Amino acid sequence: MTKTEFCNILGYRLRHLPQAEVEKSLTFYKESIDDRMEDGMSEEQAVASLGEIEQIAQGIELELPFATLVKSSIQANKQRASNKTLWVVLAICGSPLWLPVALAFALVVLVLWLTVWILILAFYAVLLAFAVAGSVGLLGGVFQCFVTGPVAGLMIMGMALGCAGLAVLCLAPVNWLCKKLAHVSVLLLKKTKGLFVQKGEAV
Amino acid sequence: MDAQLKRGLLEACVLKVLTAGDSYGYQIIKDISPCIELSESTLYPILKRLEGDNQLAVYTVEHNSRLRKYYSITDSGRQRIQDFLDEWQEVTRVYEFIKGVDSHDKD
After folding, report:
1. How far is Cα B92 from Cα B66, in angstroms, rounded to an integer?
2. Separation in Å, CA of B68 to nearest CA in chain A
3. ipTM score
4. Which of A105, A138, A190, B8 could form a disulfide with A160 if both were Cys (CB 3.0 to 4.6 A apart)?
5. 3-state class of A101 per DSSP?
């Protein structure tokens, strides 16, 4: 296969991606072929040593942000649909079937993602509550010393210090846990994305 | 080798190669190849990701009347190598542990 043939095939395989992205990838591979030829390989050898085009294309797709992939897939679908009215008819007739499924899937992913972030929010809310209880309670305790006497005041101050202590103690574990949770949410989106990329063009 | 593990190793390898000086795609592959197998289809996403994470910078140079992209490591890239080495000490400990249990079984 020549360099031009390689670029044509790869370009066609990536046709549903943004033009700039395709250009960037092609430039990289063209450059590599040129460098290999400069190193003494023939054009055929240089192209062959790059590996399978399908594998190359999948590598490029997997690295693109999810939003870009969906957008370009939708655009590609739109183009196809405008070419074939049959597509539109099929999509409309089939909508009672695929719309609920797609909606349910999107909702499940959304709910899972939200759950993770709500958990993170809850953890920090508890932490904040302890911190606020600690600092306000301490002030309240001092105030109480003068109003009802040292016994009640000191008791409140003691409890406030306990709360503040808990807040400080839990900060590091909560941070650690939330980092892991945030990672889970990213992983979730990546896995979902992987699902679409493996299927190729259809979204 | 596990894909995730290999990706992490390769990212560190690419950064390490760049500590010796700026380099371009094919040269990076040649430099890493004696250590671990690497192809363009693997390197391209890695370079893109490292660039996105600001761990390397890209510039273009004219070479033999064509353009060639060069990659140079940033401070955050150097830090990444250090982080990798620090983390790896932990992995080595686990490795020794696993290896130890295994040889005990044979005895």
Report:
1. 45
2. 7
3. 0.81
4. A138
5. helix
